Amino acid sequence: MAYYNYQRFQIREWVEFDSKGRAPCPCCSKGHSDKTLSLVSNSEYGYKCFRGCTPAEIREALGAPPPGQGLGGGFPKHLELPEKKNSPPTDYTVAQDGVEYMVGRLIHENSQDAQQARDWLCSRGIDKADITRLNLGLGRRVIIANENQPHQKEIYGAICIFIPIPHRPGRYYVKKRVAPWLKDPKRPDYLGKWSQFGVPATVWFTHLPPDASETWFCEGEWDAIRLAQLARQQPDKIAIACSTAGCGSVPKPEELERLPGEVTIFYDRNDEPKADGTRPGDEGAKKLALALAGRGRIAQVPMPDKCSLKGWDVSNAIDAGYSWSDFKHCAAAASLMQEEEMFLGQGEPAENVPASSDADDNADSGKIVNHPSFTPLNAEQLLQEIDALIAQDLPQSQISALIPALAHRCAYSERSIWKIYEHRLAEIEIEEERTFTAAMIDALLQAKEVSIDLHSVLPSALAEPLLRYANWLAVRKEAVLLTLLTTVSALHHAQTTSWLNRDWGFSVKPNLYTAIVAPPSQKKSPIVRTIARQPLKVLEKKARREWIEQWRDYKETEQLYESLSKEERREQFPERLPPAPPDRRKVFSFTKNTSEGLRNQVEAYPNQGLLAIPNELAGLFKSANAYRGGRGSDEEDLLSYYDGIGETVLRADGLA
After folding, report:
1. Where is this region: Disordered (predicted)?
2. Whole-angstrom Cα distance, residue 102 to residue 129?
């Protein structure tokens, strides 16, 4: 038996969160620098990663015990637990048959994900031959967006890159580019671009001649594929490779030893500077060149003058028309990175370096580019800039043009700036409407004191039972009256119209939208059940019997029609066979619905009204677009129903 000190794991003692309770996930950023704030702390002990990392994976990345084992130390109460055997680490690699299956899916499958993946690769200049040669496949990425609902999973298509494992023949690492065809606003914030569980920083060759004498090293997989396309058309014995870790991490020495000969590094240019002023592509190239111990040379990707595109890479250069000879020229001009140059490039103090004011001497002395200092805006300055932008009341096109520049000045992503802008705009609107809101609240509070005499609006034969019912339940009679009027409004013919002024064309539909607002256990449900549900159930039972009889009569008529000859049919059925009854029965009320279900019911009974009776008012709005991934127009359709305008839907089979 093993004894464990039971002490609850507190994530805030291990991870530093910002003021909004967000931080980079230690599991997602393991092995490389990842600034994405995907880890959220929703309580003292609760936390989750929007990229799908489990608590066990997060705690393993932090070096903390797995869930259920406590933290140890101190002298609190001890719990006696059975000793657990160390389970082997999860193997995320794939066998050869699995690779062949997913490659076949990408090439031959007709699913939407497969077609979108092929189209996206084609837009990057990657064809079927590259897919087959380099073992690119179609897989999937499973996301649990809400840790409290682990059974609700979201599945996205992913382009798989299979990297052979040198010491395990027949096994492959899997690096996934997750649904690159999904763009904002359809792409969820928590869906990461890449997924590479269990993939260390590994060298991947896209072109490796048997007698290669040197290597050209790219920053990303797609760049390496495009450069390999050019290399295969040349007699030069040059290997093309990249790392699965991008520019953020350097593979281990044993991996770098696999690179043939001298290594020329073609990393991205013109990257967005980080908060310290350095650029990821430049710094990554320096680290890799230094790790290659004299074999690494840094080359500049061919790029036009005054290029404004951030992150200019090998693929951009090839798309712009640069050829193999252009890359060879850049490789010939590549510089060898020495250790002391690395320190100078990072801004370390240089000792024993003579000062010189001669521009030519400076140009020949080091080939070192010192990045200009960059001081991003702080949070207070950012809010001031956004407030000033809102105060200008600019058109949306100008705001869209200014947001990227503002993001550059504060080292935030454009998406984050847009969110802050929208939240701040909403706050300002709330502040401006506060006076109006206060007046509305006063009016609502005064309305509580208003009372209606039911005898003045209803016949005594109806008013008396309603008053007795309200007294029995000890509820306001106005709530009972409101429920009755709403129920009756749904029984009007659908074409009923109340004209307020014919000269102006001012008319309204007699449909009512009402709600009973009260704390729990205040007898809201009994009122709705007695005044609305039970009477409508009587009508629905009658309608059901009539519908069954209509179908029975239709079937008998249909059998008779089929048994007659053509002459007898013309004699007994001059108008041919009558149309069939609707394929669904008539209902007068419902609690939940989809837009399609409601539309089909209205098509079947166009002259009948329907009463929506959701159990909770909030559920009516939260269920909007529930079956469309949050991308439908259910809320807008609800407003159209309120106006009584109706809708005309163009479908492939006609109007609806």
Report:
1. 63-91, 565-584
2. 15
What interhelical angle do 434-447 and 414-432 show, nearest 10?
50
- DSSP label at 310? T
In the structure encoding, which two tokens stand for residue 351, read together? Answer: 């000792």
Q: Which amino acid is at 445?
A: L
pLDDT at 348 (0 to 100):
39
What angle, rounded to 10 degrees, do the helices at 96-108 and 112-123 form? 80
Please tell us whether the domain made up of 90-199 is placed in CATH 3.30.565.
no
CB-based contacts of 464, cutoff 8 Å, min separation 6: none
- Give the start-to-end residue ranges of the domains of the chain: 1-87, 90-199, 379-445, 457-547+575-656
Listed in sequence order, the residues at least 6 apart from 512 whose beta carbon sits closer than 8 Å to its beta carbon are: 485, 486, 489
Placement of tokens 């008998």 in the chain: 556
CA–CA gap between residue 462 and residue 458 (Å, rounded): 6
Q: For residues 595 and 615, what is the distance between their CA atoms, to the nearest angstrom?
A: 18
Q: For the residues 580-584, what does the mean pLDDT come to?
A: 86
Confidence of residue 367 (pLDDT cuts 50, 70, 90): very low
Stretch 394-418: mean pLDDT: 83
Overall average pLDDT of the 422-439 stretch:
81
Angle between helices 396-410 and 414-432 (to 10 degrees): 120
Amino acid at 160: C
Joined together, the tokens standing for residue 199 give: 């993939």
In angstroms, what CA-CA distances link 210 with 213, 235, 238, 260, 264?
9, 12, 10, 10, 19
Return d(Cα 301, Cα 317) in angstroms, integer: 7
Instruction: Please tell me which residue, 220 or 4, carries the higher pLDDT value.
Output: 220
Residue (of 384, 471, 450) closest to 421 by Cα position: 384
* 58 CB neighbour count, 10 Å cutoff: 23
Annotate 48-103 with DSSP letters as a single string.
EETT---HHHHHHHHTPPPTTS----SSS-EEEEPPPPPPPPP---EEHHHHHHHH
